[in-house]
Structures are given as structure tokens and as C-alpha cells.
Amino acid sequence: MASSHVDMSTPANTADRRLELLRSAPLDSWIALSEDETTIVASGSTYEEVVRNSEKVGVSDPLLIKTPKAWHYIAV
User: Fold this and answer.
1) CB count in 10 Å sphere of residue 16
2) Alpha carbons 69 and 26: distance in angstroms, whole number
3) pTM above the 0.70 mark?
4) Rounded to 5 degrees, what angle do the CA atoms 5, 38, 65 make?
5) Which sign, positive or negative, has the C-alpha torsion 37, 74, 24, 62?
6) Rounded CA separation 41/15 (Å)
7) Which tens digit of pLDDT belongs to each residue from 4-54?
């Protein structure tokens, strides 16, 4: 019988989790991800605002991303 355990540390699962996280982010804004890229720790309309807010919650080295105005699907 095959095991149903899923190893969440595999690169594919990490990429899936990161994609879900990005899809949940506010559109057309700046977001700050935690150092391990598993949590949105701050969001806002400007880069400076997000840096300030991430430092307020104790994240000094976040990954900063500008989200698009809309997500577009690409078929490959």
C-alpha cells in the first residue's frame, strides 16, 4: 500500500505554496514576505511604507515584491 504522506519540503510543494501566497496578496501593491517566504508580513501602496511596516513587526530582511494590477494566466 502506498503512503499518502506528502513531503511539503519538496521544491514543487514550496513553489505551490508560494504561488498560493502571491495569489492571496492585494493586487497593485507592495508586499513584504517573511525571510522564509511563507508569510506576507506587510503590504501597502509604497515601497517605503512596506519596509517601515515589516520592521515594525520585527522582520528586518523581508522579500519585497510589487504585485501586478491583475494576474494573467499563461498556457504553456
Assistant:
1) 12
2) 9
3) yes
4) 140
5) positive
6) 18
7) 443 445 566 878 888 889 889 999 999 999 998 889 999 999 999 999 999
